[in-house]
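> example.struct
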């Protein structure tokens, strides 16, 4: 491969055709998973905001009282409903001012509350919508290992598609700011597909690479275990997790949190506790893990400390002492979701994520258009794809409506999403692609508007609740307006995505 002054990347025509064919085949093979993962990923960037929106009555906590964590711990022990295996707390931060407490108890399962600034458990956690969204993105609501593996493969496919797409279009960088407007709609869509791919290429590469690593982490750890530790994956996990103390199941009084909290405050005076995990609080082998943001500007800036039940420090892993591998590992999640530099970066990640979902959907429509041009139309697949592409926004909106209408029924959002998805695919058997797309847009807009209107949090003291509702109204109105406009010209010879 060589460069020329006028032609960009100079590849033999046969090579370009072969790469383009591979690019199309790879995109089609993973199209549905890529589209769903990209769409839900763009929304999952705002999972903290959606959690606040789903829980408008939960107490907002700017600062914690000195004894808030011991108080929350004591109340969680009392309300767990059985012998407690562990208690987890996620502490408030400026972008998510909620103190979250979860218990895992024998015979009672998981229970979860939001607490006030004094540590009193005040309201149960409602997260039907956010749980639906996150699980779709992380493992497609499949068993975690298999679903995560499939999502990781989709990340690899996305990364490969980006590279093959660049190689298949030798002039793509030279033509980065050229759009053929006013002529064939198919050429316009192809140019937009390529321009979005180039303009946001750094983002696409970061998201696809980190997504592949996160999704395939189970496989990577299994391979490392076989290569380095004779198949013992626990030793691999021990490299980056706080180890547990030696097992001792004899009963003991509930451990005291105060010495651990005081020691962590002395060790990281400028830090802030982000996460707290208490293992077996009423057994001899009780222990506490604290994750403390060290106050630096590193993306991976969280220390981890482990204490036994007597308050003795037995493990310390400081972010400042991480090697390059540790820094990369700690940065994967924040880099993948944009959780590292404030609200503007999150908004940019969300918009770019929607652009990535557009690439996944638009690539399929361009393939359908090329088939039409060559006299081999696939109207059935066109209808199915349009039903899926516009059915997912509608189904996700239906899931959110289910969460608002029945916040205590955790399965309602998932059932609403699944039934709406299937209904849209069924409608595809009787409706052409263009009216089907308009139906999907209009239906999504209508449901989003309905969600904002029936949501009971307009008077919440948290301005984020009203902000989310206003965004829902604006997007809903825009989608309903677009559904009433005359249909666009077909991509080619009657092919139209709506």
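> example.seq
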């Amino acid at each position: 491969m060589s460069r020329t002054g006028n032609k960009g990347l100079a590849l033999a025509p046969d090579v370009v055709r072969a790469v383009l064919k591979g690019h199309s085949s790879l995109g089609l093979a993973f199209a549905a998973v890529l589209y769903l993962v990209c769409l839900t990923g763009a929304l999952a960037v705002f999972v903290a905001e959606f959690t606040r929106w789903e829980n408008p009555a939960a107490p907002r906590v700017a600062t914690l009282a000195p004894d808030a964590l011991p108080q929350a711990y004591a109340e969680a022990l009392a309300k767990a409903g059985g012998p407690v295996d562990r208690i987890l707390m996620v502490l408030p931060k400026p972008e998510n001012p909620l103190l979250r407490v979860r218990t895992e108890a024998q015979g009672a399962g998981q229970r979860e509350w939001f607490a006030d600034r004094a540590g009193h458990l005040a309201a149960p956690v409602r997260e039907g919508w956010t749980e639906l969204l996150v699980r779709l993105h992380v493992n497609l609501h499949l068993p975690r290992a298999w679903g995560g593996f499939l999502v990781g493969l989709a990340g690899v496919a996305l990364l490969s598609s980006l590279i093959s797409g660049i190689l298949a279009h030798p002039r793509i960088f030279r033509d980065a700011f050229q759009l053929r407007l006013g002529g064939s709609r198919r050429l316009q869509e192809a140019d937009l597909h390529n321009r979005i791919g180039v303009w946001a290429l750094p983002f696409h590469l970061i998201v696809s690479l980190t997504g592949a690593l996160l999704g395939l982490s189970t496989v990577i750890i299994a391979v490392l275990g076989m290569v380095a530790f004779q198949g013992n994956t626990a030793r691999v996990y021990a490299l980056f997790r706080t180890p547990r103390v030696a097992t001792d199941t004899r009963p003991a009084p509930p451990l005291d949190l105060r010495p651990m909290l005081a020691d962590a405050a002395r060790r990281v005076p400028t830090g802030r506790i982000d996460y707290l995990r208490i293992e077996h609080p009423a057994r001899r082998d009780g222990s506490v893990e604290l994750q403390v943001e060290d106050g630096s500007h590193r993306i991976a800036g969280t220390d981890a400390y482990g204490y036994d039940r007597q308050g003795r420090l037995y493990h310390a892993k400081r972010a400042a002492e991480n090697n390059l591998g540790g820094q990369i590992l700690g940065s994967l999640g924040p880099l993948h979701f944009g959780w590292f530099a404030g609200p503007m970066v999150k908004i940019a990640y969300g918009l770019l994520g929607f652009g990535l979902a557009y690439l996944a959907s638009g690539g399929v429509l361009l393939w359908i258009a090329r088939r039409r041009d060559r006299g081999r139309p696939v109207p059935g697949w066109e209808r199915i794809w349009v039903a899926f592409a516009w059915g997912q926004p509608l189904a996700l909106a239906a899931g959110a409506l289910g969460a608002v209408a029945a916040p205590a029924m955790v399965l309602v959002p998932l059932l609403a999403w699944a039934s709406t998805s299937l209904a849209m695919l069924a409608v595809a058997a009787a409706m052409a692609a263009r009216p089907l797309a308009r139906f999907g847009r209009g239906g999504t807009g209508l449901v989003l508007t309905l969600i904002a209107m029936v949501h009971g949090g307009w008077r919440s003291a948290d301005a984020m609740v009203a902000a989310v509702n206003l965004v829902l109204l604006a997007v809903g109105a825009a989608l309903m307006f677009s559904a009433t406009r005359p249909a666009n010209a077909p991509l080619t010879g009657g092919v139209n995505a709506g």
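> remarks
The chain is about 55% helix and 10% strand.
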